Amino acid sequence: LFQETDFSIYTGFPERADRYVMFVDTALKAAKHNDYTVATCWAYKKNKLYLIDMLRGKWTYSNMKEHLESFIISNDFIDTCYIEAIQTGANLLDDLKYSENPTIRSLKYRPMHRQVRESKLNRAQGALSSLGHVKVLLPIDADKIRKAFLKEICSFSADMSHANDDIADTFFDAVNTLGKVVRKRPKPQEAPAILSQTVETIGSMSRVSA
Fold this sequence. Notes:
Blueprint (H helix, E strand, L loop, with lengths): L7 E3 L8 E7 L11 E9 L2 E10 L3 H14 L5 E5 L3 H10 L4 H4 L2 E5 L7 H11 L4 E5 L3 H11 L12 H19 L26
Parallel strand pairs: 1-7, 2-5, 4-7, 5-6
Antiparallel strand pairs: 2-3, 3-4
């Protein structure tokens, strides 16, 4: 469904974005045959979506929480974190909300509700449609992140024969969320929609790590 040409590249850090957000997709277990836990950080800027950082691995719940906490602290410019609110994700939402660490606790945590009967293919098709309104940019200075992202997204197939789609889950959530906002924006002569507070001059691509 997706081609490498659907994505652009950028360098530096997307300063003065409308929002800096994180999407998390959790796995139930850490066995080899289980899914990955993935967290992706994004910057929303008008109709552009920048992938900033990514975390991916298979861990027990306690180790997963530790990795995510470290990831949040290293990306402290994030203002909101979206987590699918079922099973492991629901527990993670509560644990992060009431963390003893003030940096972790200060984020806004939002449950990501996916429609029960909505298939992953439908979400993928929605994301593909949103690419007509949203430009997605990947970091040229972070090979491991960019290549891992493209490998999984460009392997995603309609017959679900692809190996993994955990990065894809967070990508679908990110692009569909921004796509809805872009399509609802008023015409130019009207007052522009405000996605959220502007975050000022923070970070550099030195923050990015695989």
